[in-house]
Amino acid sequence: MKQGLTNLSNNQRIEAIKHHYSEFNVKEGYDKTLFSKTFISACNDGNIEVVNHLLSLTSKEFQEEMIYSHGNFAFIAACVGGNKEIVQLLLDLTPDQTKREEMIHAHDNRVFMGACASGNKEIAQLLIEYALDQTKREEMIHAHDNRVFM
Fold first, then answer.
1. Interior CA angle at 48 toward 10 and 41, to 5°?
2. What CATH code is carried by the domain that includes residue 72?
3. How far apart are CA 30 and CA 58, in angstroms?
């Protein structure tokens, strides 16, 4: 089942996941890689319907795994892709402020830099609002010798 799934559209992946989930009906035995890749792709593409659907199919623990896996890549993809609704959702699903700070400041503040470089002002503002640690917020804004202002 894994072969060729990366070439499918998000909707085709969702159908494969639905089939996989219902066919085997195994809570711990489903293909987590398929879920994670589809989740990250949906975050990047701004497909909130797919994001919500995948979240509805999984346990709280696996939701967290999808959100925080691969160095917070789903969050990074949503920020750089300019998907404010998904960024907000992922932040809302992260009540732990320490985890939020990790997401926001991931990879040496490249999330903020990517949002700014892509012209996503609303996302940059959202990241500033959710970065409660004043020192980290200042570091984020002025990261990499103020490149976001160049």
1. 40
2. 1.25.40
3. 10
CA 108 to CA 95: how far, in whole Å? Answer: 22
119 is in which domain, residue-wise? 8-149
The DSSP result for 57-125, as a single string, is: HS-HHHHHHHHHHHHHHHHHHHHHTT-HHHHHHHHHT---HHHHHHHHTHHHHHHHHHHHHTT-HHHHH
pTM confidence score: 0.76
Per the structure, how many domains does the chain have?
1
Classify residue 117: in a domain, yes or no: yes
**pLDDT given for residue 103 in this prediction:** 94
Predicted confidence at residue 85, as pLDDT, reads: 97
Token pair 């959202």 in the structure block, residue: 126
* pLDDT tens-digit readout, 91-105: 999 999 999 999 999
The answer as to whether 3 is a domain residue is no
